[in-house]
Here is the input.
Amino acid sequence: MSSATLESPGLVPLAGLGKRARGTIRLLEMAGDELNRLAGFGICMGRTVELIKRGDPLILRVYGTRIGLSARLAQCIHVEPADGASPDTAEPR
Amino acid sequence: MTLAPAPPDTPAHEATRTAPRRQTIALVGNPNAGKTTLFNALTGLRAKTANFPGTTIELRVGALRLAGESVRLIDMPGLYSLSAASSEERAALDGLLGLAPEHPAPTALILLLDSTNLERNLFLASQVLELGLPTVIALNMVDLAQRLGLRIKVAELSRELGCPVVPVVAKTGRGVDELRAELERVIARRPDVPHQPAAERARQLDTQSQHQRYDWAERVVGRCVVHPDRQIHGRSEAIDRVLTHPVVGVVAFLALMLGVFYLIFSLASIPMDLIDGVFGWLGDVAAGLIPAGPLQSLIVDGMIAGVGGVVIFLPQICILFFLIALLEDTGYLARAAFVMDRLMRRVGLPGKAFVPMLSAHACAVPAIMATKVIDDRRDRLVTILVLPLMTCSARLPVYAMVTGLLFPTQPLLGAAAFTGAYSLGILAAISMALIFKRTILPGQARPLVLELPSYKMPSLKTAFFVMLDRGIIFLKKAGTVILALSIVLWWLANFPEMQPGDVPAGTAAQVAALEAQAAALETAGQAEQAALAADQAADLISQQQLAHSFLGRLGHLIEPAVLPMGFDWQLGVGVLASFAAREVVVSTLSILYGLGEEGAEGAALVDQMRAATRPDGSLVFTLPVCFSLLVFYVLAMQCFATTAIAAREAGGWRWALLQLGYMTVLAYGAATLTYQGLTWLGAA
Here is the structure.
């Protein structure tokens, strides 16, 4: 995404999580109406999500339900990987 | 069809002072939480579908008996959040929830929560409860929650939320009586002062508080739900590993849709023949009751035949809707949208547009109605605009006629022409979508966010209701418009009436000879031969009548305009007559080539057309003309049922007219190019 992003230490884009890894959403870079839309699905600041399937679109688990999400949006969501889950760096980005 | 939450001339406060207005209960909840099933369980068969005034937001309205009183129940669109609504949804929500001053608030709300996914459902609940309306919470799918090992403390939850909570299983009807009893209590407690619009409160649904709402939801769930030690993810995830696979998922989807189409075309033929028979019988009965003359002709040839020609597509529409509703109910359609999203986005449309685009290959009417699933208004409009370019089943008789003309003895080439026509439609739809996305409706397709609900057994009853709803909307919308247009077209084709003096001398002599022949055969006892000769005479007269009519004259009038496409005045008449329903061109041409209406059924028409010559003696249906005709009917709108439905679903006639306009221009341009190009190639 944009290089102007203030990448806080320890945060990775959602799409950069390893498969089956969990992370807590810390930053959402998008317009208000997209924020509102995502919040209805449980994709919101402070929520913990699990990456079920990578790709475009990818699949997340949020509060027990699975949500299909386009990679374009996933790029704008930054998560703090949960303990033990390191950001997947082996996969080409 | 309009619907207002209350009679527009009786503001709430006045109504409560004079006669008590009919009470209204609105049903609110997440999509996939079982809202439709609960609505059906509460209202039974008496529901009808209507758009909220001035919007394309569709609501189901039913009646519910509470304490001996008939209460109106409104099934609101499924919502994940009140603040995520589009401007159109916003208008409908404000009206229904009493947030707009001109609409009274509902008496009470039923807030449906999926007990297997309480945290997320409580997010919407936090917004809905803030509206301050009397609310009863229906906690659905408690059986499934139990199976998953969740234990929900209902009394505790009711205390936390500050309103009654009733556990239900909408599918089996468990708890529905308790829900009714609770609603009766809430309604009885209702204060006589009407609810004040809480507009300012609703405006507080801002993004700032979103995470606080989830914090609250998590706290409530923490106190009221005991989770199992181990989470069960079930079979859905295993199935999805196959069905959301980028390659296998697409193949599986296409195979499934092939099955759907097979069912549509194989099952629909029986009721279609039946409808054809019924309208034929109606025509015969009417012809028997009404003395021959203009009135009989109007009713039989104009109204009954015109409406019958459209109603015949009802079985296809119903079967398609039934199957799509079943697929949607299983949860599969979300997967279809998921796997198609990446491919569809290349043409600027979301994955959810794909099922409507496939459906349009049976009929554009249900396809346009199925675009409701597309969240973004611009994406939805573009999809509606391009859908009728797909080859629907009404184009098949026209394709069959033209390929018969072109390649009567080469089935392989005929098949290639058919395939080419289908491909041209798809290609045109994709190109037009790209053009619309870069011009009048700019912007990329809205990025995908969608829930992949757990798979479940579909409900035949729900699918049946959906089918019934759609069928009725089609009959009402298309039926009335088509009836009006059929009358106009009938009048144009039958007036002014031909007087004996108007018949050209040559034709008059032919008719007289045939009639004399018929009489002679009759007396010789050869009744069959006699009838044949009489029919030929009648066909000749119909041919002359049509040529003499306003429509025939219009055909002559527009001949210079259709000439660039290689069309003569007769094809011009065919184009005009099939304006309301494209397949009519076949029967019109049959009349024009002197075979009567029945001639359209057999091979005789194609033979007659192949032999047809222009005044200078050259053949009419040369190769360039045939291809031009084919291209024209691939791309032209020529279906007023679709135009009427497009106006309803796009939210205004201007979109439907834009569609009609661009398709006509496109068809004209492409047919001209085809004719001129092939003629030039042939000459070169």
Summary: Chain B touches chain A at residues 79-81, 83-84, 116-117, 119-120, 123-124, 207, 210-211, 214-215, 231, 236-237, 240, 244, 246, 334, 337-338, 341-342, 345, 375, 447-453 (CB under 8 Å). Confidence is low (pLDDT under 50) at residues 1-19, 193-203 of chain B. The CA atoms of residues 264 and 595 of chain B lie 32 Å apart.
